[in-house]
Amino acid sequence: MERFLNNLEDSLAEEQGFSTVGVALALLLSFALIFSAARVYEVESVSGDIQNVADSAALAAENAVGEYCVIATMCDAVVLSLSLSSLCALGLSVAAACTPPTAALSQALLKSAQKLKQARDSFSEKAISALEELKLMLPLVAAAKATNVIAENANARNGVAYRGVAILVPWQTEPLEEHATTKTDDAFSAVDQKRDELEQLGAEAEKAAHEANRIKEEAYRYDCGSETNYCMYERAKNLAHLSGSENPYYSSSETWDFGVALARAQAYYRTRVGQEAPANDSVAEQARSALRKRFYHFATIELARGYVNNSEEGFDAFLPILPRNTEEMRETELYSEEVYKINLVEAGASGDGSTGSNIQKDGMFKLHAYDACPDLLRSHSRLGYGSLKDIEDDPVRFRICPECQLSPQSMGSVAAASTSIPNGFEYHYRKVAELAREYAEQREELDERSKKLKEEANGLFDSIAEAFDEAKTARIKIDPPGKYGAIAFVTTTDPGHTNFLSGFVSGSSSFSKRAAIAGATLLPESTESGKTAINSILDDYASTNAGALVGAERIVLDLWSGLIKGYGEGQDALSNGLKSAIDSLPLASESGLGQWAADLFESSLSALGLEPVDLSPQKAALINTAHIMSQDDSNFSLRLLSIKEEVLSAADTDSLFTDALSSAESSITDAIDSAEFTIQVATIKIIEGKVEIPITITLPQSIKDAATGTVQEGFSALKNAIESTSAYRRWE
């Protein structure tokens, strides 16, 4: 033996070339390594195959959850849009009731709002019931899709067959509940009760506004209705030569108010006081000029007391009316002021008549219109000042001056002509002053009705705003089974055979049984498919005869379609839809209450803060199963998570794994037995018999059949795999 080994050593160490034995050994080692590597690759490949199958099964199961989310989102879009559009129509009904031109439309809007509310309540009830059924079926659909994927991934080349199951986490969620709509019901009840009263107040306010505007228009024409015809503007321009800011011209009564006329009159009389002068040197003309100046001075003082306060709160004005005759003059200071000089005519017995405080009481007296009256200048007995009232109080002692002819009638006639005919400034001013009083009466009536109407409307809008707050939270909750994810279990029922049988690698021609677990969850995807699903409802809407509708029905349908189309836009969609609806209403009126109500309603909703909905579709993505199970507190998830935590320890996890699968299998089996696979989610009945849009989901019976067989087979295969591998070392 020793000799043999020495010879072998010599042959292997020979430097002349390769020996036959060395080459043979090298080849044997090379082939052994090649076939070993190939076998390792094959083992890793088939092991990877089953993991890929498990991944695909988990993704298929979780994508079913994503489809449910699309359906639930559509239902929520319908419920929210119907809620918002019904309340918008309710608010528009209130606004329309505030003015006669839209009063009839108000009643129609209220009825349309009530129909929308009924449609919302009916749809919500049916949709929640249908979605609850879908939630019960969802784990079955997910399991069936997963088992189909598993079955389709059999490897014919290696003869591998797979069985498995996918379980949604959580398997069940809390039942959907119908939200209370107490505030919405209260708002509808309040509007229904108060609408007729609003309509009556609106009609009364409109009547008062019409009369007030008629009066204002008439007053405007007297003040500056023309640049060339007689009016205060034209008279002030030609008589007092006023211009610019003292004599402004307004082309419309909409921008004019009574304060313009008052300011013009004040400027006119201030100017006329300084301009007044006799036209000639005659005594009569000088007397008339003195009285005119006296009148202008009186008017200046009197008009200085005038005022005009015009605001949304009300109208309050005082435009003093100047005397146009002797009778009216007697009611003013022109009659009683002691500004006329007196002289003594002759002495006589004391009379019973009373005179001014600084007038001699004996003899006969005369009053003079101006200080340069010839009769006064000739007299040497100037006795102070008296009033026109003195002449009429003691006609026996007071005589009319033969020169200036001063008497109460003299002053009374100063403005008589200019007040009585259109070519006088006083004529037009008096008309404006009288109309201002009439306008104040109508404004008082208008303001009283408007105030009461606004109080009622404000209360109704507050009630509707509370209903909006309720509506934005009374939504369909998207809380499906599998919201945390789906877990797929896959095992081999026929592990397959190797394609690398050789003498270089020992072992069986068949692979060992294998198993894999995978998890998937939903993540948002940035595509437009979410909006497409919502728009599909509008496609059905377009196919109805809705386009033939007019009036209130047309308004509310356009409002609803705009809201559902803008479901993902939140507050912007609501604001834009409401603005469009308001613009379609003929709210213009003389009282302005309809537009006021619409603007108030629109502004009250601007602070609603309706959050936009993320319409990004949910797409399944692979995730570590531990992340899925850690969010769920069900028995299945807790046990499976325990297995993952203990798998590296020496603890026996087979019984835990079997218990977890048994718990899931029991839930699935019960659900299969009670499932119904054809569901009409609901029908959107916006206008009965005219606009009805069904949302229907039909699942074929084959899914139930597949669920009944393949799901149970998958659980059986998993349990068998656990039992057959419990004595072997686990891969780590």
Your description of this structure?
This protein is α+β, with helices and mostly antiparallel strands and 732 residues long. It has three domains: 318 residues, no CATH class; 167 residues, no CATH class; 84 residues, no CATH class. The protein is 58% helix and 11% strand. It is built from 22 helices and twelve strands. The protein has a four-stranded antiparallel β-sheet. A four-stranded mixed β-sheet has the order 6-4-5-7. Strands 2-3 form a two-stranded antiparallel sheet. The longest helix has 78 residues. The two termini are 47 Å apart.
List key phrases describing it:
single chain, 732 residues, alpha+beta, 22 helices, 12 strands, rod-shaped
SSE order and pairing:
Layout: H1 2-12, H2 20-97, H3 103-152, E1 161-169, H4 182-224, H5 232-239, H6 258-275, H7 283-304, E2 307-311, E3 314-318, H8 326-329, H9 333-336, E4 340-346, E5 364-367, H10 374-378, E6 382-386, H11 388-393, E7 398-400, H12 408-412, H13 416-420, H14 425-471, E8 485-494, E9 515-524, H15 529-542, H16 551-565, H17 571-583, H18 593-606, E10 618-622, H19 625-629, H20 635-646, H21 654-674, E11 678-687, E12 691-698, H22 701-725
Parallel strand pairs: 5-7
Antiparallel strand pairs: 1-8, 2-3, 4-5, 4-6, 8-9, 9-10, 11-12
Helix pairs in contact: 2-3, 2-4, 2-14, 2-15, 2-16, 2-18, 3-4, 3-16, 3-22, 4-14, 5-14, 6-7, 6-14, 14-18, 16-17, 17-18, 20-21, 21-22
